[in-house]
């Protein structure tokens, strides 16, 4: 049975600036990657050179049949020093938006995707109550310059991710690091690394508050206030742009006796943030797997369960459940801003896409306003601390030549996008 999607559906893929552009030298992550004893498996370096090759990549998306592209603008490029905006960087992203228009690709912009300018971290980072105003100032500048070409903007990517990071760190105490996908090294080397980190940023190690880290309650408030202040600033200079945020949501399930743990997890990871989202125009939803809770709390995937390169259970059905749950609590259009799988087996990527999209189609059929699906990721790229070892892309990249090679999944997904049929 074929499944028809709306003619207006947005079919796209996502990237994040630091993971694909290369040479993001003013960002906090660049500094962290290049420290001696770094916890990063490798440096981002030139990444996949998307800063130079963006036009070819966008043309390739259009050739495949996609009609939208979610990508991020890099704060550390736009404002490399506090209060000093780089016109060359703005012009670069204006060119990226022009390429999207040329190839009939609808852009969805993210203004913060994990990386921050080094100066922000030195000034207290994502635990400082001064950060929301600084972030709003940056967002206002970008949208004043580029907003006419941006129909949708996500202020912050996965604003709730610190909660998941905290849980993973706790689980790591009893699980193998490779299983949960965090390269932590030994306690001694970590202590040396954090000491070097503090020295590099010129603050005590415990005051290095990058975005992708465990957060205090105050830090969570900083992040969501940054969102609401940015939303206000964006609307002032680009009122026609639809403003939202993205959250990382697991399909939270329970077995008998685990209901209280599951309810607590959903409150902690999603429901507590609803007041900050009330005035948003849309919701960016991101899902990769499920979490199951029992009487004792979180239950790891079964030993014989199929798992991705990230150690996640292969569970594309989670997307439908999360869309349904979010729509019960948010009366807003939803864009799936990330959904995908780290795997070397592209047949499993195809299966993941098909099963995830079946769920999206079911939701649309029941009247839930899902506007689009952005697959993560367009390109095999730099997976943060894990380097280039995890492959999420529709396009493989030979990093010795930066040549792109569409995988069978790219053609498969492109065919769905071309026909609006699953």
Automatic annotation (TrEMBL):
A single GO molecular-function term is: beta-glucosidase activity
Biological process according to GO? carbohydrate catabolic process
UniProt keyword Transferase present: no
Tell me the domain of life.
Answer: Bacteria
Q: Which GO terms describe its cellular component?
A: cytosol
What sort of enzyme, by top EC class, is this? hydrolase
Q: Which Pfam families match?
A: Glyco_hydro_1
Tell me the protein family, please.
Answer: Belongs to the glycosyl hydrolase 1 family.
Provide the protein name.
Answer: beta-glucosidase
